[in-house]
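Cross-posting from the modeling subforum.

Setting up a comparison between two proteins and wanted a second pair of eyes on the formatting. Protein 1 (sequence, then structure tokens):
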Amino acid sequence: MSRRKLLSSAGILLGAAAVGAVAWRYRPAPDHDRPRLSVAEPFSAAGAGAITLVDIRTPREWRSTGVPVGSVQIDMRRDDFTEALSRALGGNRAAPVALICARGVRSARMVRRMAEAGFSQIMDVPEGMLGSGAGPGWIAGNLPVARWQG
């Protein structure tokens, strides 16, 4: 293969990878029929003790960006996530809880799963920490972030 064809092929592959990365980043979140909150709503409600805000991202993400002030951190990949969430709510699956992730895709998926598991007041924060099609997100919204203590 000539050098020109090789460079051309590499450019096409890099371009396709870039388009795929952008599409992946802005892919729509799974649909659900639960309430969706702006980032300001769970911040205020958690501060007032009216809701439990749960950051479901990974420890690596918590270390990288910090965690929402007033949140509980439970890695969604835990095998015992449902039980850990129930414990965070004092065993009350009817307590109001909002889930936040990076961009709203994982939180939407987990909202559906937790609704099926019997959490009756489960809510989604689709903007996430980093922003999505739903809005700019927690960090860009200048809401307080704490260093993860893990």
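Protein 2 (same layout):
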Amino acid sequence: MRCFLISVLFVSIFGCKVTTVENFTKSEVKAEYKVQNPYFSNQEIDYVYKADITVYGNEFSGILILKKITPQKHRMVFTSQFGSTFFDIEFEKETHKINSIIEQLDRKIILNTLIRDFSLLVKETAIVAERYYNDQYNVLENQKDKRSNYYFYNQLDQKLDRIVHASKRKEKFIIIFNDISGDQIAKNIQIDHKNIKLTIELNLLKK
């Protein structure tokens, strides 16, 4: 009886899908399935957003400029409206380079979280590990370092609506893309964390 109860507990904890896709149907992963994030992929565009970052009660507001500077590299600069730089970070493949960052954001938990958020935001492609679907979404799962990124593509137009970053048992944060233009630009982007007090909102100023 004891072994049976342990087995049931093990299955209940590790055998269930994360809540992100628990009501979705799982299907075969085919070769043509590809994770693609088009929103910051054009080297000809300077993506300029009004940015508001709230972290543990501290608010930072200003202008965020995001630029794809080579086929594999993005640069992101966040400044105040008076021109002071909050941070200047480059992302290339799975690495990053911090050119500058203010002391208030240069704390391990905050910095690591920002790097994870923005790395995922600009990551253009990824390998598909699993696929799920329902009437509204086609969901492609990418797995990395014991965590997963779930990419939600709207069934109506196949536009990427959101990305959910989750552990095996719960969601960690979600990136939501709103008001998508015909040339694949998200006019509003929200990043909401579930377990720490960090929110990011970006509103397009120009392209």
